[in-house]
Amino acid sequence: MNNIHVFPTIDELSAFFAQKLAELSHSVPEGKQASIALSGGSTPKGIFQYISQYAADSIHWDNIRLFWGDERCVPPEHEESNYKMTLDNLMVNIPLESSNIFRIKGENAPMEEAERYSSLVTGLLPKHKDTPAFDMVLLGLGEDGHTASIFPPDINLFDSKSLFAATQNPYTGQKRITATGRIINNARSVFLLVTGSSKAEMVARILKKQEGYEKLPASRVMPESKNLFWLLDGQAAELL
Ligand code: 6PG
Question: What is the pLDDT of residue 1?
Fold first, then answer.
């Protein structure tokens, strides 16, 4: 299940991921598009910047539709918005039609937006076992083992029948919208992008199945497709 790739630098990790993205964008059947759910936080910034600078021309952007795996419940211009992070570090640099961008509206009431986005994704994506199937889901890893916005106290969201749910960051109370395990584990491929020594302990706990790892949300990322890629830099992998 776990394809674990360790890269000496973030640029080499980014180059590998960009290649996968380019391959996906050029493998889309005529008239179809690949649907990708992006992760948020800070890790993707460097990867998006690399793609913008070195790989944008290798990707067939017209064949790509961008979604998000989670969002903070803030307006799109807010500094903590995952949409804004993506806009500033990637979308301003690539020829992606706005009609191919489907942001989670953090400014909306959380429960209603979770339902709206679930319906939107249901209407736009092909199904696998009656569940929308993303071609690619990007995820990050928090130092507490959270992924997307599924934090340890709400790990049961991996068993939710919903596709997207309203939740919150338990440490700050910030409201969040997150993909649930139902849609994460239904994706054709899942990429966990983890960099930095601050994540090394959590990476080791999960990948080495150390005591209590089952309580960590990221340990529940097990796509039925078996296409799970952990992309780590040397620091994040230093305890493996
Ligand atoms: C978010 C992310 C979240 C993130 C991890 C890692 O909205 O914050 O989706 O799951 O991927 O918290 O965050 P960093 O990349 O900032 O370490």
Answer: 60
Task: Dump pLDDT digits (tens) for 101-155.
Answer: 999 999 999 999 999 999 999 999 999 999 999 999 999 999 999 999 999 999 9
Which of 65, 18, 58, 57 lies closest to 37 in space, CA to CA?
65
* Domains of the chain: residue spans and CATH: 17-25+32-55+63-194+202-215 (3.40.50.1360)
Tens digit of each residue's pLDDT (9 = 90 or more) over 78-104: 999 999 999 999 999 999 999 999 999
Q: How far is the CA of 100 from the centre of ligand 1 (A)?
A: 23
User: Which residue's entry shows tokens 């991921």?
Assistant: 17
Q: 204, 149, 142: which is closest to 6 by C-alpha? A: 204
Which atom belonging to ligand 1 lies closest to the Cα atom of 43? Answer: 15
| Residue 31 Cα to ligand 1 middle (Å) | 33
Q: Of 159, 180, 177, 156, which is closest to residue 168 (Cα–Cα)?
A: 177
- Rounded distance from Cα 92 to ligand 1 centre (Å): 21
Pocket of ligand 1 (CB under 6 A): 39-43, 70, 82, 140-142, 146-149
Q: What's the average model confidence in pLDDT over 37-61? A: 98
Helix then strand then coil, in percent of the chain rounded to 5, is: 40, 20, 40
Tracing tokens 């706990």 back to the chain, one arrives at 205
Q: State if pTM tops 0.90.
A: yes
Which residues neighbour 192 within 8 Å (Cβ) at sequence distance 6 or greater?
139, 140, 141, 147, 218, 221, 228, 229, 230, 231
Q: What is the pLDDT of residue 44?
A: 98
Residue with the smallest CA separation from ligand 1 atom 8 is: 41
